[in-house]
Amino acid sequence: MPISLSAWHNIWHTEYLYAFAFIIIGLLLLLRCKQDWLAIVKSVVVFLAIALICACASFISYQLNLNLAARILQEMSVILTGILTIRVMGLSIFRSILPLLHVHPPRILEDIILVLAYIAWGMIRLSTAGVNLSGLVTTSAVITGIIAFSMQDTLGNILGGLALQLDNSISIGSWIKVDDVSGQVIEVHWRHTAVRTRNGEIVVIPNSMLMKAKVIIVGGEDVPQWRRWVYFAVSNTIPPQRVINSIDKALNQAEIPLVSHHPKPQCVLMDYKDGLCVYAVRYWLQNAQIDDPTDSTIRVHIFVALQRQGYALASPNFAINMTTESLEREAHLHNTELAIREHKLGKMDLFSTLSHEERQHLAKTLTYAPFAKGDVITRQGDVAHWLYVLVSGEVDIWYEVNTQERKLLTTLPAGRVFGEMGLMTGEPRRATVIAKTDVECYRIDKPSFEHIIQSRPELANEFAHILAERNQQLVAVQQNGNHNNHAQHHAKILDGIRRFFRLG
What we know:
Blueprint: H1 5-11, H2 15-29, H3 37-63, H4 67-100, H5 107-128, H6 133-150, H7 152-167, E1 175-178, E2 181-188, E3 192-196, E4 202-206, H8 207-212, E5 215-219, E6 226-235, H9 240-253, E7 266-273, E8 276-285, H10 291-308, H11 324-346, H12 356-365, E9 367-371, E10 376-378, E11 386-392, E12 395-400, E13 406-412, E14 417-418, H13 420-425, E15 432-435, E16 439-445, H14 446-455, H15 459-478, H16 486-500
Antiparallel strand pairs: 1-2, 1-5, 2-3, 3-4, 6-8, 7-8, 9-16, 10-15, 11-14, 11-16, 12-13, 12-15
Helix pairs in contact: 1-3, 2-4, 3-4, 4-5, 9-10, 11-12, 15-16
């Protein structure tokens, strides 16, 4: 059967070329949407395939003189091509062009505009085909009323979703709490909002419920931080201001992940109860997902800070009966602990020259000083009051070039000593020491050491020799690799020791 040119003319319109051109341009613009691009291309291919099938069927119908069927199929092809063009161009505008202009309208607005464009295009084509739209509008109004009455809840959810996205009160990424459900918003749909809890559960909440319920937004783009409370109790025999100052200093100096320094953590006295002082640490959490682990880290810092001050967390009062056997056991444990301390001191070069009795004297004066990971143990430039014996864990030694830059000098393992220069000479701290892990230390203060060095002034020369060697690394960093004369360092440090301990 010969192909009729009139049939080909009837099914082909130059508008097809414009539509295909717009579709190709839109797809190129959508290349920025890497995650959705393949899905969009698949939908375009399906729509184009259906439109082409309708066009081919229309062509065949014209050839068979089935003019009515041909016109219907042709109109379906035109409508599908128009819908496809509207969809691709709409997506390219909302997901590619507007983001480039730093405009981010809610997804639901995109859906509304596209649906309205589809309806407008369909009505235009129906009007072109000679359909009387007045009767259609009247019928549609009646049908719409019936649907609205029978789908009140669904429409309530849809309107709720529309309101939520248009006013942007709840956005993807926000942390919300609704009744007993709390979690992060992962999707906001027309009908519902999906929330992922900290346990990984997906909770689907109808939008109408969100519009009626009290919703607490605990974190999001506008509120990136969430204030947390950690409570603890200490005996009321300890002045509250000492506790507050100790905790504030420890937490503000520590480098704790996800804890904001603006505003800073703050310790406050909350209540007096049963002979106890109840305190709370208020801090701002930067990631609501890591709430309990960060609370735990804060508690560790509180615990070790109290231990360093010789304070203990409050415990219930019990009557304790001490027997002779328990007292003897306690004395035995004390002596064993002193022997362990003396043995560890003997292994360190700074104390290896001391006699057994002198190390025993130091062992009795040691103060237990634990630190949590991230704690600043000493700060460069601070006044030195004691040196530290590192029993377990690791610490990083930093030299602060300025307020914005610092260099890592070394990492000290367990069994080393740091802070000795300040104790021996009274000089300000020359480096910052930060706990790389949870560490246990013992502190030695000046009065404990003063008795030994004044009874044996010759020790000053040996200490100066050891300190001069240790000082070389720090000086090299400060002076960009240039080492000064060891003898000069030794003489300077020796003079500082003699002057600090008044050795004459």
